[in-house]
Protein backbone atom coordinates (compact mmCIF):
# COMPACT_ATOMS: atom_id res chain seq x y z
CA UNK A 1 0.00 0.00 0.00
CA UNK A 2 1.36 3.40 -0.96
CA UNK A 3 2.14 5.91 1.74
CA UNK A 4 0.95 9.49 1.48
CA UNK A 5 3.75 11.85 0.61
CA UNK A 6 3.94 15.22 2.34
CA UNK A 7 3.64 16.97 -1.01
CA UNK A 8 0.10 17.09 -2.35
CA UNK A 9 -0.32 15.19 -5.64
CA UNK A 10 -2.01 16.60 -8.70
CA UNK A 11 -5.64 16.15 -7.73
CA UNK A 12 -7.55 13.55 -9.73
CA UNK A 13 -4.68 12.69 -12.04
CA UNK A 14 -2.54 9.57 -11.97
CA UNK A 15 0.91 9.99 -13.50
CA UNK A 16 1.66 6.86 -15.53
CA UNK A 17 5.39 6.41 -15.14
CA UNK A 18 8.24 4.39 -16.65
CA UNK A 19 11.78 3.80 -15.37
CA UNK A 20 14.56 3.29 -17.90
CA UNK A 21 17.95 2.26 -16.50
CA UNK A 22 20.40 -0.51 -17.40
CA UNK A 23 21.20 -1.08 -13.71
CA UNK A 24 18.77 -3.42 -11.94
CA UNK A 25 19.51 -2.02 -8.48
CA UNK A 26 18.99 1.53 -9.70
CA UNK A 27 15.59 0.61 -11.15
CA UNK A 28 14.60 -1.19 -7.97
CA UNK A 29 15.70 1.67 -5.74
CA UNK A 30 13.80 4.28 -7.73
CA UNK A 31 10.74 2.05 -7.92
CA UNK A 32 10.65 1.75 -4.14
CA UNK A 33 10.92 5.53 -3.75
CA UNK A 34 8.17 6.18 -6.27
CA UNK A 35 5.88 3.79 -4.40
CA UNK A 36 5.54 6.47 -1.71
CA UNK A 37 3.75 8.81 -4.13
CA UNK A 38 0.02 8.15 -4.35
CA UNK A 39 -0.35 9.71 -7.79
CA UNK A 40 2.58 7.83 -9.40
CA UNK A 41 1.55 4.63 -11.22
CA UNK A 42 4.57 2.63 -12.38
CA UNK A 43 3.57 1.01 -15.68
CA UNK A 44 6.91 -0.38 -16.87
CA UNK A 45 10.63 -0.75 -16.17
CA UNK A 46 13.10 -1.02 -19.05
CA UNK A 47 16.73 -2.11 -19.01
CA UNK A 48 17.84 -0.49 -22.27
CA UNK A 49 16.96 2.20 -24.77
CA UNK A 50 15.52 -0.11 -27.43
CA UNK A 51 13.11 -1.67 -24.96
CA UNK A 52 12.18 1.79 -23.70
CA UNK A 53 11.25 3.03 -27.17
CA UNK A 54 8.99 0.03 -27.72
CA UNK A 55 7.27 0.43 -24.34
CA UNK A 56 6.80 4.17 -24.75
CA UNK A 57 5.09 3.59 -28.10
CA UNK A 58 2.95 0.83 -26.60
CA UNK A 59 1.98 2.40 -23.27
CA UNK A 60 2.18 6.18 -23.88
CA UNK A 61 3.34 7.00 -20.33
CA UNK A 62 3.01 10.48 -18.88
CA UNK A 63 6.48 10.44 -17.35
CA UNK A 64 9.78 8.65 -17.95
CA UNK A 65 12.75 8.57 -15.59
CA UNK A 66 15.46 8.15 -18.20
CA UNK A 67 19.06 7.17 -17.46
CA UNK A 68 21.51 9.05 -19.69
CA UNK A 69 24.48 6.68 -19.57
CA UNK A 70 23.33 3.39 -21.08
CA UNK A 71 25.20 1.14 -23.52
CA UNK A 72 23.91 0.98 -27.08
CA UNK A 73 21.00 3.42 -27.24
CA UNK A 74 21.67 5.97 -24.49
CA UNK A 75 19.14 8.30 -22.92
CA UNK A 76 19.74 11.10 -25.41
CA UNK A 77 19.22 8.67 -28.30
CA UNK A 78 15.91 7.60 -26.78
CA UNK A 79 14.71 11.22 -26.80
CA UNK A 80 15.86 11.69 -30.38
CA UNK A 81 14.02 8.59 -31.59
CA UNK A 82 10.77 9.07 -29.68
CA UNK A 83 7.75 10.05 -31.75
CA UNK A 84 6.46 13.52 -30.89
CA UNK A 85 2.89 12.29 -30.43
CA UNK A 86 4.10 9.77 -27.83
CA UNK A 87 6.32 12.28 -26.05
CA UNK A 88 6.13 11.94 -22.25
CA UNK A 89 7.62 14.29 -19.70
CA UNK A 90 11.22 13.26 -19.08
CA UNK A 91 13.29 13.41 -15.92
CA UNK A 92 16.89 12.58 -16.76
CA UNK A 93 18.86 10.40 -14.36
CA UNK A 94 22.63 10.75 -14.32
CA UNK A 95 25.57 9.83 -12.10
CA UNK A 96 27.63 12.82 -13.17
CA UNK A 97 27.46 16.49 -12.25
CA UNK A 98 28.66 17.21 -15.79
CA UNK A 99 25.04 16.95 -16.89
CA UNK A 100 23.57 18.73 -13.88
CA UNK A 101 23.64 22.16 -15.45
CA UNK A 102 21.30 25.11 -15.65
CA UNK A 103 20.18 24.01 -19.11
CA UNK A 104 17.89 21.44 -17.50
CA UNK A 105 16.03 24.26 -15.80
CA UNK A 106 16.01 26.49 -18.88
CA UNK A 107 14.42 23.84 -21.07
CA UNK A 108 11.64 23.00 -18.59
CA UNK A 109 12.77 19.47 -17.82
CA UNK A 110 14.42 18.11 -14.72
CA UNK A 111 17.18 15.75 -13.68
CA UNK A 112 18.17 13.75 -10.61
CA UNK A 113 21.68 12.67 -9.69
CA UNK A 114 22.58 9.13 -8.68
CA UNK A 115 22.34 8.09 -5.93
CA UNK A 116 18.92 9.74 -5.88
CA UNK A 117 18.09 11.72 -2.75
CA UNK A 118 14.50 11.69 -1.52
CA UNK A 119 14.21 15.47 -1.31
CA UNK A 120 15.55 15.92 -4.85
CA UNK A 121 13.16 13.29 -6.20
CA UNK A 122 10.26 15.08 -4.54
CA UNK A 123 11.29 18.34 -6.21
CA UNK A 124 11.40 16.62 -9.61
CA UNK A 125 7.96 15.07 -9.15
CA UNK A 126 6.50 18.40 -8.06
CA UNK A 127 7.83 19.96 -11.27
CA UNK A 128 6.27 17.17 -13.28
CA UNK A 129 2.94 17.83 -11.58
CA UNK A 130 3.17 21.52 -12.41
CA UNK A 131 3.90 20.82 -16.07
CA UNK A 132 1.01 18.40 -16.30
CA UNK A 133 -1.31 21.02 -14.82
CA UNK A 134 -0.15 23.48 -17.47
CA UNK A 135 -0.79 20.85 -20.18
CA UNK A 136 2.24 22.20 -22.01
CA UNK A 137 3.83 19.06 -23.38
CA UNK A 138 3.33 19.60 -27.10
CA UNK A 139 6.79 21.07 -27.61
CA UNK A 140 8.49 18.83 -25.07
CA UNK A 141 10.57 16.99 -27.64
CA UNK A 142 11.97 20.18 -29.14
CA UNK A 143 12.87 21.46 -25.68
CA UNK A 144 14.66 18.20 -24.94
CA UNK A 145 16.52 18.26 -28.25
CA UNK A 146 17.58 21.84 -27.60
CA UNK A 147 18.71 20.75 -24.15
CA UNK A 148 20.89 17.94 -25.50
CA UNK A 149 22.66 20.32 -27.87
CA UNK A 150 22.95 22.94 -25.14
CA UNK A 151 24.60 20.77 -22.50
CA UNK A 152 26.91 18.85 -24.84
CA UNK A 153 27.75 21.47 -27.42
CA UNK A 154 27.15 18.75 -29.98
CA UNK A 155 24.44 17.68 -32.34
CA UNK A 156 22.39 14.79 -30.86
CA UNK A 157 23.80 12.51 -33.57
CA UNK A 158 27.23 12.90 -31.95
CA UNK A 159 26.15 11.88 -28.46
CA UNK A 160 27.34 8.27 -28.89
CA UNK A 161 30.85 9.53 -29.45
CA UNK A 162 30.58 11.70 -26.35
CA UNK A 163 29.69 8.65 -24.27
CA UNK A 164 31.84 6.14 -26.14
CA UNK A 165 33.86 5.27 -23.05
CA UNK A 166 30.82 3.98 -21.24
CA UNK A 167 29.60 4.73 -17.75
CA UNK A 168 32.72 6.42 -16.39
CA UNK A 169 33.24 8.96 -19.20
CA UNK A 170 36.96 8.62 -18.46
CA UNK A 171 38.03 9.46 -22.00
CA UNK A 172 37.18 13.13 -21.47
CA UNK A 173 39.73 13.62 -18.71
CA UNK A 174 43.54 13.19 -18.74
CA UNK A 175 45.07 10.10 -17.17
CA UNK A 176 48.12 12.11 -16.14
CA UNK A 177 48.59 15.63 -14.84
CA UNK A 178 51.54 17.56 -16.28
CA UNK A 179 53.49 19.72 -13.82
CA UNK A 180 56.30 21.92 -15.14
CA UNK A 181 59.04 23.19 -12.87
CA UNK A 182 62.43 24.71 -13.79
CA UNK A 183 62.48 23.22 -17.26
CA UNK A 184 61.40 19.81 -16.04
CA UNK A 185 58.00 18.22 -16.55
CA UNK A 186 56.58 15.72 -14.07
CA UNK A 187 53.70 13.50 -15.13
CA UNK A 188 51.51 12.40 -12.22
CA UNK A 189 48.92 9.64 -12.75
CA UNK A 190 45.57 11.20 -11.86
CA UNK A 191 44.47 8.00 -10.13
CA UNK A 192 47.35 8.44 -7.64
CA UNK A 193 46.28 11.95 -6.59
CA UNK A 194 44.72 11.81 -3.12
CA UNK A 195 43.91 15.45 -2.48
CA UNK A 196 44.63 18.99 -3.65
CA UNK A 197 44.92 22.19 -1.66
CA UNK A 198 45.11 25.78 -2.83
CA UNK A 199 47.96 28.04 -1.74
CA UNK A 200 47.49 31.43 -3.36
CA UNK A 201 48.04 31.07 -7.11
CA UNK A 202 49.43 27.57 -6.68
CA UNK A 203 47.93 24.14 -6.17
CA UNK A 204 49.63 21.58 -3.92
CA UNK A 205 49.03 18.16 -5.47
CA UNK A 206 49.25 15.34 -2.90
CA UNK A 207 49.72 11.89 -4.35
CA UNK A 208 50.67 8.33 -3.49
CA UNK A 209 52.90 5.89 -5.32
CA UNK A 210 55.21 7.40 -4.26
CA UNK A 211 53.88 9.72 -1.57
CA UNK A 212 54.80 13.22 -2.62
CA UNK A 213 53.62 16.80 -3.04
CA UNK A 214 53.97 18.67 -6.32
CA UNK A 215 53.20 22.33 -6.88
CA UNK A 216 51.26 23.50 -9.92
CA UNK A 217 50.62 27.10 -10.90
CA UNK A 218 46.86 27.15 -11.42
CA UNK A 219 43.59 28.23 -9.89
CA UNK A 220 41.29 25.75 -8.22
CA UNK A 221 38.63 26.42 -10.85
CA UNK A 222 41.03 25.68 -13.72
CA UNK A 223 42.27 22.47 -12.15
CA UNK A 224 38.76 21.35 -11.24
CA UNK A 225 37.72 21.60 -14.89
CA UNK A 226 40.52 19.19 -15.89
CA UNK A 227 39.62 16.44 -13.44
CA UNK A 228 36.78 13.92 -13.59
CA UNK A 229 33.98 15.24 -11.33
CA UNK A 230 32.89 11.66 -10.69
CA UNK A 231 36.21 11.17 -8.89
CA UNK A 232 37.33 14.58 -7.59
CA UNK A 233 35.07 16.76 -5.46
CA UNK A 234 35.54 20.04 -3.63
CA UNK A 235 35.05 19.63 0.12
CA UNK A 236 36.24 23.11 1.05
CA UNK A 237 36.76 26.39 -0.76
CA UNK A 238 40.46 25.58 -1.03
CA UNK A 239 40.45 21.76 -0.96
CA UNK A 240 39.52 19.00 -3.39
CA UNK A 241 39.73 15.26 -2.69
CA UNK A 242 39.77 12.01 -4.61
CA UNK A 243 36.63 10.41 -3.18
CA UNK A 244 38.02 6.93 -3.87
CA UNK A 245 40.76 7.72 -1.33
CA UNK A 246 38.38 8.52 1.53
CA UNK A 247 38.86 5.86 4.22
CA UNK A 248 36.86 7.29 7.12
CA UNK A 249 34.44 10.14 7.76
CA UNK A 250 34.38 11.62 11.25
CA UNK A 251 31.67 14.02 12.33
CA UNK A 252 32.72 17.33 13.83
CA UNK A 253 30.97 20.33 15.37
CA UNK A 254 28.44 22.50 13.53
CA UNK A 255 27.69 19.92 10.87
CA UNK A 256 31.27 19.73 9.67
CA UNK A 257 33.26 16.56 9.03
CA UNK A 258 36.84 15.39 8.88
CA UNK A 259 37.78 13.06 6.04
CA UNK A 260 40.53 10.53 6.71
CA UNK A 261 42.25 9.51 3.49
CA UNK A 262 44.23 6.39 2.56
CA UNK A 263 47.49 8.28 3.11
CA UNK A 264 46.25 9.20 6.63
CA UNK A 265 45.72 12.84 5.69
CA UNK A 266 42.98 14.51 7.74
CA UNK A 267 40.89 16.89 5.63
CA UNK A 268 38.26 19.24 6.97
CA UNK A 269 35.03 19.38 4.98
CA UNK A 270 32.95 22.52 5.36
CA UNK A 271 29.16 22.40 5.65
CA UNK A 272 28.63 24.23 2.37
CA UNK A 273 30.28 21.38 0.43
CA UNK A 274 28.69 18.54 2.34
CA UNK A 275 26.14 17.83 -0.38
CA UNK A 276 28.95 17.08 -2.84
CA UNK A 277 29.68 13.75 -1.18
CA UNK A 278 26.50 13.29 0.81
CA UNK A 279 25.93 9.92 -0.87
CA UNK A 280 28.95 8.45 0.95
CA UNK A 281 28.36 10.05 4.36
Give descriptors for this structure.
five-stranded parallel sheet; OB fold (Dihydrolipoamide Acetyltransferase, E2P); 8 helices; Rossmann fold; alpha/beta; 281 residues; 2 domains; five-stranded antiparallel sheet; single chain; elongated
The biggest beta sheet, please? 5 strands, parallel
- What class would the helix/strand composition place it in? alpha/beta
Q: Report the helical percentage.
A: 25-40%
CATH level 1 class label of the largest domain: Alpha Beta
Estimate the strand proportion: 25-35%
Strand arrangement, largest sheet? 2-1-3-4-5
Q: Which shape, going by the Cα principal axes?
A: elongated
By DSSP, the count of extended strands is 15
**Helix segment tally:** 8
CATH-defined fold name of the largest domain: Rossmann fold
**CATH-scheme architecture of the largest domain:** 3-Layer(aba) Sandwich
Q: How large is the radius of gyration? A: 21 Å
Number of domains in the coordinates? 2
At the fourth level of CATH, the homologous superfamily of the largest domain is: Response regulator
Return residue spans where pLDDT drops below 50 for at least 5 consecutive residues.
Answer: 154-171
**Helix-strand string:** EHEHEHEHEHHHEEEEEHEEEEE
Determine the N-to-C terminus distance.
Answer: 30 Å
Mean pLDDT: 77
Protein architecture, described:
This protein has helices spanning 24-34, 49-59, 75-81, 103-106, 118-134, 140-152, 159-162, 220-226; strands at 15-20, 40-46, 63-67, 89-94, 110-113, 176-181, 184-189, 193-199, 202-207, 212-217, 232-236, 239-242, 246-251, 257-261, 266-269. It has 281 residues and is of the alpha/beta class. The radius of gyration is 21 Å and the shape is elongated.
Amino acid sequence: MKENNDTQPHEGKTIRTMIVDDELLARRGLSLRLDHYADIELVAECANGREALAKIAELSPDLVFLDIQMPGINGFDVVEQMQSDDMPLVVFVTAFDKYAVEAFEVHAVDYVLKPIEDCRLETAINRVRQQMQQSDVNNQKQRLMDLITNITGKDPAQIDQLLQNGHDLSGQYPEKLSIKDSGRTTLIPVKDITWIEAAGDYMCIHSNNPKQVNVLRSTMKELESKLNPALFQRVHRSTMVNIDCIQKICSHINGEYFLILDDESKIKMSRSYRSKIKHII
